[in-house]
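Weekly structure sync, notes
Attendees: PL, DS, HV (note-taker this week)

Item 1: Helix-turn-helix domain-containing protein
DS walked through the input record. Source organism listed as Microcosmobacter mediterraneus. Sequence as pasted into the shared doc:
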Amino acid sequence: MKHQLPHIEFKSGEDSNFGFEIVPIEKIITNKHKFDHDPEQPHQLKFYNLIFFTEGTGRHFVDFEWYTVNKNSLLYLTKEQVNAFEFKSTLKGYCLVFSERFFVNSFAHLPNDFVFRLFNPQLFSPLIQIPEDSEFKTYFKLLQQEYNRKQIFNHKAIVESLFIILLSKAEQLKQHQTKHIKESSQLRLFQRFTRKLDDQFTFQRSAEYYAQELAVSYKHLNYVCKALINKTAKQVINDFIILQAKRNLINSNLKSSELAYKLGFEAPTNFTKYFKKYTGLTPNSFKKSIKK
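Item 1 (cont.): predicted structure, written out as tokens:
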């Protein structure tokens, strides 16, 4: 592993690109030695990535868990997630990579709760399986065709529209493969909760505090978290902090004692006890396990 976790920005290889690109996995495998990072080692995304596996079997590393992927597996990767490929000669597919600007522009006219659900690892597994006879595959081929026709009239709008349709078809499949969240008021509260947590976790880890900030009772916040993801509000907070700690720990330039203060712990020993309580490992043991 390199001394610093690579943070991969969106860089297009296409002159006419507008924040969206379709990249074959075979192309990544062929050119992996030309990158300034190893795609088979953990790296942190600064863009969004939707990977559609069309042939073979393998694994993909997402936020410290390995997911088995097969033909017709669809993998959602959101900005800031840590991921890594495991390349095999039989594994084929495509990465649909897009910038945050493309994401915002494409979904500007869609319901906010729909957009929030799309790339939210707290609400869903990042992996779904596309049925062989699904319309998703039809629209994916159409998106490929239109994306490759660079000089057509209104090219950007056509690609954006087909991409929205593609994700909408995937959302339809999620309703049958995962617990579908329909209660929008609960979803909005959970969204506000996670946003506040992202802003304030370094100085506040109390579920009661966030309930007060959201102007709801602690009991109601717990109820919503349990209803949506079967976790208490405190578990949501702990999971979020542990994930931030793991993402920082695999940057080998950062000592666990430095990370303790960065995450808002009063002393390194407090952080070590907290981390071990929820992972079973000390911070240093976790770093060594990832390097292996």
